[in-house]
Amino acid sequence: xxxxxxxxxxxxxxxxxxxxxxxxxxxxxxxxxxxxxxxxxxxxxxxxxxxxxxxxxxxxxxxxxxxxxxxxxxxxxxxxxxxxxxxxxxxxxxxxxxxxxxxxxxxxxxxxxxxxxxxxxxxxxxxxxxxxxxxxxxxxxxxxxxxxxxxxxxxxxxxxxxxxxxxxxxxxxxxxxxxxxxxxxxxxxxxxxxxxxxxxxxxxxxxxxxxxxxxxxxxxxxxxxxxxxxxxxxxxxxxxxxxxxxxxxxxxxxxxxxxxxxxxxxxxxxxxxxxxxxxxxxxxxxxxxxxxxxxxxxxxxxxxxxxxxxxxxxxxxxxxxxxxxxxxxxxxxxxxxxxxxxxxxxxxxxxxxxxxxxxxxxxxxxxxxxxxxxxxxxxxxxxxxxxxxxxxxxxxxxxxxxxxxxxxxxxxxxxxxxxxxxxxxxxxxxxxxxxxxxxxxxxxxxxxxxxxxxxxxxxxxxxxxxxxxxxxx
Length: 473
Ligand SMILES: [Zn+2]
Fold this sequence. Notes:
Blueprint (H helix, E strand, L loop, with lengths): L3 E4 L4 E4 L7 E6 L10 H19 L3 E6 L6 H10 L3 H18 L14 H16 L3 E3 L5 E3 L20 E5 L9 E9 L16 E3 L1 H13 L3 E7 L3 H16 L4 E7 L2 E3 L2 E2 L10 H6 L4 H9 L7 E3 L1 H25 L15 H7 L4 H20 L5 H18 L10 H15 L3 H13 L2 E6 L2 E6 L10
Parallel strand pairs: 3-4, 3-10, 7-8, 10-11, 12-14
Antiparallel strand pairs: 1-2, 5-6, 6-8, 8-9, 12-13, 15-16
Helix pairs in contact: 1-12, 4-5, 4-6, 5-6, 8-9, 9-12, 10-11, 13-14
This protein binds zinc ion.
Zinc ion binds next to loops.
């Protein structure tokens, strides 16, 4: 079965055929670096990571570009409020963003262009000039340059808006606006007082680019006129992605994107995330509450991307238990795999349900279902002594492949010196058959979050998941 995706443009599930396989040119709208990204943003980035990893597991070579929007209405507004130059202000949030990506185990994109880099500003100006020469862009009396919507009849097709029913609203200078507002959008915004120090010289005077032209310029500069996949959250569809299509296709004369993939909204505790409701979380907020990056990754990844995700603390706790279950199973397999050399007899390792579920429009719920079926079945066989070392090794190999897509492995926890000392003491107590001391030390270690199991090979210890004692929020 080929890989298939739901294409927002056609509203149909389609076989995935890139322009020049195995290469996949993929563009993902990145953060606007005016604040810390929130978990709604990260839902989209985790989904894009799953998409990239699955395509790679299926033999594609993904070249992914993610932009950083470091100049727009919001970055300028917030940097001025903070009394900091734009560049200095956005740098802090760029750095924080990369730390967050790492914590969520999101594979770095091939490139992270930033809108204010001179080569991209030049590319934006070049595109706007091209649109102007075609009569599609025009400078208005306010000095800004706008896109003449009447020249692009396909506007609204991605969002499936019926433009005939919507009243044109003239010109729109804001980067973001409501679905009801259909108007000529700004490509270049003439400098005004609110821009402060921010501005670039252009054929239309001093000003700055609109948000939409930034993405068209960076995407086509790095990936060419035709992209295989373009992703984002559903709230990017209108007006942002509509505008990207209009600008890019008018400039290049080619179909901008083959497959548009959008992930659905994230709710928190059943409500729309909003600062005023008190359910607005950045990644930092959650890690401070004791949740690890991989637990948050699990919670964000485990719901199919086109379904709304209700993010709850019960969901995080469920993610924590699921990961413990996987860890224990993998540790058990590893232990068994080291005990002998008998060949594999079971077919579990040939299980392909995980991959085929993901082929079907990234059905992660189905894929995880297959994983946990495999865990249950192999645990049962191990309980009954019907699983050989060879079986365990073969299944571990399978798990390595699957985990290449999931990235669920435990954090490589360094053992603190204090814990090391207690472990040594306990090993000595056991050697001396001093059972009361051994038990006391085990309790002491458990109180510090390290659980000890005694096996034939000696003490085995597992670090309880971060913050396991303080799981209730
Ligand atoms: Zn974008």
